[in-house]
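Example record

The entry below shows one chain as it appears in the dataset: sequence first, then structure tokens.
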Amino acid sequence: MRLHATCKMRVRVSSDCPVVAMLRPRSGDAQWMVSERYELHPWVTTTEYVDVFGNLCQRLTVPKGDMRIEVEMIMEAEAAIAVAPDAEAVAVRDLPSDTLQYLLQSRYCPSDKMEDRALQITGDTKSGYAQVEAIRRWIHEHLEYRYGVSDGSTDALDTLADGAGVCRDFSHVAIGLCRALRIPARLVVGYLHQLEPMDMHAWFEAFVGGRWYTFDATQAEPRGGRIVLAYGRDAADVAFLSNYGPLEVTEMAITVDELAAGASTMALST
């Protein structure tokens, strides 16, 4: 499916502030950039690099005062996500080397303390995709989606104790439980078509059956229409803005709409 997505924000700083942004999706097997517009008002020199997780990172310095950041894109995305109930877990000794980092505990996913809960949730479920789906379903059914419960310090254990959180919190719980079962899992941030209310979204992927599969504990059923902006071990790796000085996001608006197949780059606004 072809999606038209926009992210428009205004930031304010009291003095020049270095920033690293993750606002440009990369092209790959599951999505392809057809066209894009990336504007800064006022314009400043910007460089881009690829981080250790393969994410596109834009490096700039926001000058004192206000800046508008506008990103607009047309993407080819998957209308449905792959589902493989019979996909088996991959033994650690056979895992690709680049997946091993997603087995380790991380800042928001203390998986070393979550094995008992993971085994309790999955029970005698077949090892692999079915275990991950059991975890996703348990979170969807037992945790309440509620704003204002978590903050920048909330980890997966906190969310389990609170019994509530938002998309990133649900994903942290799932990632921690998967890793406790020796299943590589990573956080994904981006956009989801028809998300209500529309905002940046977080979900997770697990490596089973020799590939990564998408899971979203906030949704009742598997849904496509996703634009990936970044992957990481947890939220610490995928902030859409990392600021090295005081910075306030004063406005932010996101839209994601489906376009007719083959819609041209002329759909981009000016």
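Notes for this example: Residues 129-142 form the longest helix (14 residues). The radius of gyration is 19 Å.
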